[in-house]
Amino acid sequence: MAEDQELKWGRSTVDTACPLDCPDACSLEVTVENGKVLSIDGSHTHDATNGYICAKVRRFPERLYGDARIPHPLIRTGGRNGAFEKATWDDALGLIASRMVSIRDEWGAEAILPFSYGGSNGLLSQDTTDARLFRQFGTSRLARNVCAIPTSTANQALYGKMPGVTYQDYRYARLIIVWGANPSSSGIHLVPHIKAAQDAGAALVVVDPRRTNLAKQADVHLALKPGTDVVVALALHRFLFEQGLADQEFLAEHAHGADRLRERAAEWTIDRAATIAGLDPELLHNVAEMYADISPAVIRCGWGLERNRNGGNAALAVLALPTVAGKFGVRGGGYSMSNTGAWTHTPDDWIGVPEPDTRLVNMNHLGRALLDYDDPPVRMLFVYNCNPAVTMPNQNRVLKGLAREDLFTVVFDQVMTDTAALADVVLPATTFLESYDIVQSYGLSTMQLAKPAIDAVGDARSNVEVFADLARRLGLADSDDHATDVEVLLEVTGSMPADVAGTLMDAGIVTDPAGGAPVQFVDVTPRTPDGKVHLFPTALEPQTPSGLYRYQPDPATEEYPLSLISPATEKTINSSLGELRRGAASLHMHPDDAEPRGLSTGDHVRMFNGLGEVHCPLTLNPDMRPGTVGLPKGLWRMSTLNGYTANALVSDELTDIGGGAVFNDARVEVARVMTVAFDADTLSEMASEPGEPVH
After folding, report:
1. Of the four, 106, 200, 473, 479, which is 20 to 30 A from 342 by CA?
2. Contact, 39 vs 461, CB < 8 A?
3. Is the Cα torsion angle 622, 233, 338, 154 positive or negative in sign?
């Protein structure tokens, strides 16, 4: 009877996968009725998902059908301050194609800058037909360095991106160090495994400027100053070497460069590192002893530690610890960061067009590119899978560049983002619930087939189809070449080993050849050319300002003494879903910093430095480290009181290794603007991130 009712009502469930920028890559069960998504829940297809998902993805139907959803193509008329008018796909793509040709003919194709970031995309929705088009046309290239590049550069140099300890093996560890990560907000499926290890007697150490939920449950919380991770890790190295606790046998057999690392670590005593990092020396000494004595021990290296001037060296120093201490070779021992190295395929296997030697633009320098480049100038910006108006450093400079009258901006997105609102042409994109994709986990070692649960909403089209259509209009593809998601899906899987592709298509999920739970140095070994760990990767030395394993001092000044961090929260995935936030986001400050400034919860404050200022309400929060303030990552302009986000205060200088962003190097001052009375609901919303408030 129930089945008959479901058929009558047109209700069904669809198994798919979440591609959003999170290590977990959950398997999903989507309930659909009469062609509309009713709910999204976790499924049991992926063991790690285990039937539950985060609240963020549960809310995704609000994006599908919300007021911010772009229903059809839009073309701005009447200049930069003109209004959008509804357009057909033919009109919109025709205008884009003609503008691309005219810019190429007058300025050269490098005057066109494609701008994207793939954190919330699968293997189909980025670097397929889009990359083929832009490579063939000869546009400028983009270095997608806003996140993960210092850590991935370090991992590649040390281990060749050797796959790491996966979630299910954390329960075997007797010591877990979570360094620069907050899985309670991003990567929730690791948390039960950590708790299971603790229940079995494991010790937990959390290294984070904030007292996160996980830090509250830890045996030791190292609340270090932002940007000092490298000296803390080097102090642990020195302790291991000086106390005769380094695994010399393992180093001799499996590593190069231990002596050079030891030389660089020699200046960092426990006391000196603790002073620089603002830690209790005894606490740091205890952690050093714990790491030396306890096995199996695993380090979860996150991405928070990379977002500063010392980010690359911090990642090197942290990731090198298991080699020096000899923590490999046992289940639950070693490190984990990103498991993208578990797979050997890359986009070059299916793009089919070599990358041209055209201008390379670091995406962190978007403001510079839009305002300073003149050989040639950037005359067209094609934005997709990204919201640079709020996610790139030096926000004021980026916004000034986007306001240029002579810049033609195209935004291809699902919702009307802050960047889309500044565009000349806006194109509606499908979500992951409306198209096929391949979802590759970076916290685990799995790939999943994402299947559409519903037809496209409104006039939305997939990335694959739109870039293929544009290529035909530009004469870069045959007129009868109608690339679809399914056709590109077959192209991508056709470049994979037959057994991997077959399992993916048949079962919807496949684990890597090591079985999804490898023991490092047993099932997997370094993927460096000689199969050894390169503790002192000499090729990186000349690329760093001060050399490998060096510390660059805190940029704080008397005028701007507070460190600003922008942690991930339970509300957004980077800037995705930012349109769903209600009310102004709150700046979190420790009471000890508020008292001398005469500030209290609910005050309307002005946070500022030489680059700009942000107005927002204040929440006093004892879980913040004194001297450090926090404003959430991923905010849209509507989520502050003056329309600017934390990135308005962030320099577009780059990290020491890899050319990443230095978000956590922003140094600011905070002062009251006026007193604002907030009701209880608003105060509750403000207090929900990044920790518990003081009222």
Report:
1. 200
2. no
3. positive
Is residue 602 within 8 Å of 618, Cβ to Cβ? Answer: yes
pLDDT band at 575 (very low <50, low <70, confident <90, very high): very high
pLDDT at 690 over 80: no
Question: Range with the lowest mean pLDDT among 6-15, 232-241, 580-589?
Answer: 6-15
From the list 671, 666, 659, the residue with the least C-alpha distance to 645 is 666
- 210: how many CB neighbours lie within 10 A of its CB? 23
Count of CA atoms in the C-beta half-sphere (13 A) of 341: 24
CATH number of residue 171's parent domain: 3.40.228.10
Residues 179 and 261 in one domain: yes
Distance CA(210)–CA(221), nearest Å, equals 9
Q: How far apart are CA 59 and CA 69, in angstroms?
A: 14
Residue 8 has pLDDT above 50, yes or no: no
Residue 456 has what DSSP assignment?
Answer: P
Query: Are both 316 and 444 inside the same structural domain?
Result: no
Q: CA-CA distance, 421 to 429, in Å (whole number)?
A: 15
pLDDT of residue 5: 38
Q: Which residues contact 358 (CB under 8 A, 6 or more apart)?
A: 109, 110, 138, 139, 140, 141
- Alpha carbon distance 543, 531 (integer Å): 23
Same domain, 267 and 366: no
How many domains would you assign to the chain? 4
Q: Specify the pLDDT at position 479.
A: 63
- Tokens representing residue 264 in the block: 């660089």
Domain check: are 328 and 382 in the same one?
no
| pLDDT tens for each residue of 188-213 | 999 999 999 999 999 999 999 999 99
Residue found by looking up tokens 């899987």 in the block: 493
Quick one: 123 and 252 in the same domain? no
Q: Is residue 320 a part of any domain in this protein? A: yes
CATH of the domain at 679: 2.40.40.20
Q: Which residue range(s) make up the domain with 252?
A: 165-336+519-541
Predicted pLDDT of residue 585? 97
Instruction: Specify whether the CB–CB gap between 393 and 647 falls below 8 A.
Output: yes
Percent of the chain with pLDDT over 70: 95
Inside any domain, residue 659: yes
- Is 83 in the same domain as 127? yes
> Among residues 238, 213, 219, 221, which one has the least CA distance to residue 179?
221
CA 566 to chain centre: 12
* CA-based nearest residue to 565, from 667, 640, 643, 651: 667
Within this chain, do residues 524 and 597 fall inside the same structural domain, yes or no?
Answer: no
263: how many CB neighbours lie within 10 A of its CB?
12
- The C-alpha R_g of the chain, in whole angstroms, comes to 25
Bridge partners (DSSP) listed for residue 203: 175
Please, how many CA atoms are within 13 Å of residue 449, restricted to the half-sphere of its CB?
A: 20
Q: What is the dihedral of CA 408, 411, 417, 421, to 10 degrees?
A: 30
Closest by alpha carbon to 509, among 518, 520, 500? 500
Read off the pLDDT of each residue in 45-64 and give the average, rounded to a whole number: 94
Residues 328 and 348 occupy one common structural domain: no
- The answer to whether the peptide bond before residue 561 is cis (omega within 30 degrees of 0) is no
Place of tokens 């100053």: 225
- Domain assignment of residue 158, yes or no: no
> Tokens for 408?
């033609």
% residues pLDDT > 90 (the chain): 88
Determine which helix (DSSP H) or strand (DSSP E) holds 680, and give its type and residue range: helix 680-687
Would you say residue 603 lies in a domain?
Answer: yes
This prediction has a pTM of 0.94
317-376 confidence digits (pLDDT tens): 999 999 999 999 999 999 999 888 778 889 999 999 999 999 999 999 999 999 999 999
- pLDDT band of residue 79 (cuts 50, 70, 90) is confident
Answer whether residue 695 shows pLDDT above 50: no
